[in-house]
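Sat 14:20. Reprocessing the chain from the morning session after the first attempt stalled halfway. Input below, unchanged.
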Amino acid sequence: MYNKIIKLIIAIAIIVFAVYQFTEGYIGNGIMLILLSLIFIFLYFKNEFILLAFLKLRKQDFDGAKSWLNKIKNPETALVKKQQGYYNYLHGIMVSQSNMNEAEKYFKKALSLGLSMDHDLAMAKLNLAGIAFSKRRKQEAQKLLSEAQKLDKQGMLTDQIKMMKDNMKQASGPKQHYGAGSSLRAQKRRG
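Finished this time. Tokens:
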């Protein structure tokens, strides 16, 4: 994997060589070199390992996605800020299956670094709402859930949001005990 600065240096060097090719009259070579430099510019903004990890996640291959993300040794130097957000977002999705505390840390870091798509922001906030609700932080969960609902403009998460709201309503309902009295005194009187 190339450092983000090295990608730009390679792109600039290719563009300089393309200009040289244009001045020498090799127009076809210059055009091909410009197209080649666009690949490095694209990879500056969209990291290749994060793209491959997203492809593995679409196939529900968590181990494959984790192996691609593990190839990024130092995310702070290798990735731009938004890519670091997606790096943490992907780690949060993968870790949420086993460790909610660690997943919460990854999702919060992803939100602080920023995600470029509203759908991804909504998904991260929905996951954080679920984690907050499971830790009995109901007000925080409701706030995150309403933010996720506002960000979900395409309606891709409406079912999950509705299910989470229903679960929150059921959990906040009155706890009724059916049968005889529930106090310890009443049970001792009967027994």
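The chain has a mean pLDDT of 82.
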